[in-house]
């Protein structure tokens, strides 16, 4: 039998890696191995990825419907916007299915502040009003557009983005994620309102400002 040369072995390994890459890159939440696994939020057991399933015999039609996104969110807050989640936390049927949705309501001029989702790509559609949607790539390029009702956008996974109501009245959008729990890193809170807080000298150096500026921003988010 002919023994393959070292360069052939190298070429073969490259080929295997090249073939596997698209599989790895396209994964979001893992695929389910059953029709459904309605989360048993009351189960007091350790869960590694998602939640344990309710016994199928206890599952009813109501488990598969959620009306939490029908309600207009309260936008009386410093940002003039509010996010209502339709994820596995309040809609347990999403457990293991790899998707979720939000409703975001905006007062006139309201802002959904810069944030990112560590576990999901986001797409969204404007249902009512006129909304500026923007995100920044890892190459520091800013992409944005003003959208009207019916128009759609996508925010690639993990990138920092925001939406701002730039129309005359209220606005609202529906967003969708390829994760049952996308997570959100909301930059103003992450940087200026963590517990315990990030030391002032880290923030003064990072933003090239004096301590009083950092203290003033922190004070806006302290409850
Ligand atoms: C909007 O950006 C959302 O996260 O729902
Ligand atoms: Mn988002």
TrEMBL record:
Mn(2+) binds at residues 115, 117, 122, 161. It is found in: Secreted, Extracellular space, Apoplast. This is Germin-like protein. The lineage of its organism: Eukaryota, Viridiplantae, Streptophyta, Embryophyta, Tracheophyta. Its main location: secreted. Oxalate binds at residues 102, 112, 117, 122. GO terms for molecular function: manganese ion binding. GO terms for cellular component: apoplast. SMART domains: Cupin_1. Keywords: Apoplast, Disulfide bond, Glycoprotein, Manganese, Metal-binding, Secreted, Signal. Residues 67-215 form the Cupin type-1 domain. Residues 1-27 form the signal peptide. It comes from Juglans regia (English walnut). The keyword Glycoprotein applies.
